[in-house]
Fold this sequence. Notes:
By secondary structure, the protein is α/β, with parallel strands linked by helices. Helix content is 29%, strand content 19%. It contains five helices and 15 strands. The chain has helices at residues 3-17, 24-30, 32-47, 53-67, 175-178, and strands at residues 70-71, 76-77, 82-83, 90-91, 96-97, 102-103, 108-110, 122-123, 128-129, 134-136, 140-141, 146-147, 152-153, 161-164, 169-172. The strands form three sheets. A six-stranded mixed beta sheet has the order 3-6-9-12-14-15. It has a five-stranded parallel beta sheet with strand order 1-4-7-10-13. A four-stranded parallel beta sheet has the order 2-5-8-11, with no helix packed on it. Helix 3 (32-47) runs antiparallel to helix 4 (53-67). The longest helix is centred in the first third of the chain and has 16 residues, at 32-47. The protein starts with a helix and ends in a 16-residue tail after the last helix. The relative contact order is 0.09.
Amino acid sequence: MSFLYRIREDLAAARGHDPASRGDLENAIVYSGLHAIWSHRLAHKMWSRPGLRGPARVLAQLTRFATGIEIHPGAQIGRRLFIDHGMGVVIGETSEIGDDVMIYHGVTLGGRSLARTKRHPTIGDRVTIGAGAKVLGPVVIGADSAIGANAVVTRDAPEDSILTGIPAQARPRTKKQHEELVDPTSYIDPAMYI
């Protein structure tokens, strides 16, 4: 898969996840989440070559300085990740993120141990992680789950879960929660975003 194709996918993901998106050119220039992801892809390729691990870390830190988003070059990130607003996002070295994941600002995918093993989360496909959430340790979050704002997740969660609270408790999503409550093209009620 070409680098240009991946950029197009990322731009499409930004359009699909952000109602404030006004076009690919503007998004490519101003979205710090896109810049961090694109830089991470290069740093991750460098990380796979032992002789380039030092420069990969330098690139990651320069990206952190420029975007406010810290992604360790060892982290494995799937396709079409979108980081909205981004500031304060931290993704640790052994994190694994699936496809079509949405991360809001202030999220930490962190470790709970100093052991040199898998110590960061595995996030399934199509997971949404709310602002300020902390997912800590080698936990596995199943596909199609949602983590609420400021939740602190320290345990595994099955697919189709909603995780809220400190410590986060998982409950199953109901079918109705997957459906639109109203057609946003015909009616916009600000309260539906609360």
